[in-house]
Amino acid sequence: MLDSLKQKKNFQRIKMRIKTGDLVKVINGKDKGKTGEVLKTIPLENRVVVKGINLRTKHVKPTQEGETGRILTEEASLHASNVMFFSKDKNLTSKIEYFIDKEGVKKRRLKKTGEVID
Predict the structure, then answer these.
(1) Over the stretch 7-51, which tens digit does the pLDDT of each residue have?
(2) Are 95 and 22 in contact (CB under 8 A)?
(3) CATH number of the structural domain spanning residue 43
(4) Considering its fold, how many domains does the chain have in total?
């Protein structure tokens, strides 16, 4: 699917405000209300993979003789619009905005509280 997205003429990369390692809360879907750490971002599809959220079971057949099949559980991706940044210190969710500090460095902060993330 990624190759088909890259081949489009008017393709633009989606700018994501959520990054790998951020703590997010699911705001929509079957796992609504759960929090987890972002393991991977997929900017081309505007999706994120969150630890312990949106688990899928995968049945794996044995590949060699004498080996048994197994059932794996792995995280599937979520659309980035279904998660929101979660602040552990303030215990709230908030949108993220970018700003340039006094030294001229671009940083992120929470819109609700003004807390600087990085």
Answers:
(1) 655 667 778 899 999 999 999 999 999 999 999 999 989 999 999
(2) no
(3) 2.30.30.30
(4) 1
